[in-house]
What we know:
34% helix, six-stranded mixed sheet, globular
Amino acid sequence: MMLQASGLEASYGRVPVLMGIDFTLADGEFLGILGHNGMGKSTLMKTLMGYLPARSGRIMFQGQDITRLPPFARARAGIGYVPQGREIFASLSVLDNLRTGCGSARRESEGVIDGVLERFPRLRPLLRRQGGALSGGEQQLLALARCLCGGPKLILLDEPTEGIQPSIIEEIEETMQHLRAKTGIAMILVEQNLEFIQALSQRVLVIQKGQITGELSPTQLADADIVAEFVGMAA
């Protein structure tokens, strides 16, 4: 088992957001999380990564209790995080952004970055450009590449298609599918783009008001009636 969340609760101040989240993630599995805005999807990702402390419950990662570990320790354990909005270093070059990814896991940058750039060839001619000068799609590719520089066993990927042009979305999809086939990396994907989450996820959990309320297969996401019943979203 790669990851297990049990009775996970989290809040912002006195406002509860996650209320008893339970799920498991198998080794190498791609798991989707689907729901409307404000239902707790991004809060779940922040709690799994340690940026938001769990009020109660437990998070197990590869047999280790990481519930109280800080984010940097979770990164070193093998969890990578690509947040909503990307959060690259706008004033640093693309190359230096990638170097920070290596540093988060105490990895030597020599060789690691070259290997990552083979999966993201679009970034190679942009290495000297500042991150803030890239397009939104290029910044998303950079955020993914930076995450991979840390050598994660699990990637938490939050709303990667938001505001991204279709060609980049296709590139991200192809890259993640290749990673799953070649490396066995696992992923938890928060997304509202039904086609994207259907293409990448082996199963999809529905979250509503801070609780997991159902599970859908990728084929069920193509059925507008089923999606409307469970999530209230149009396919």
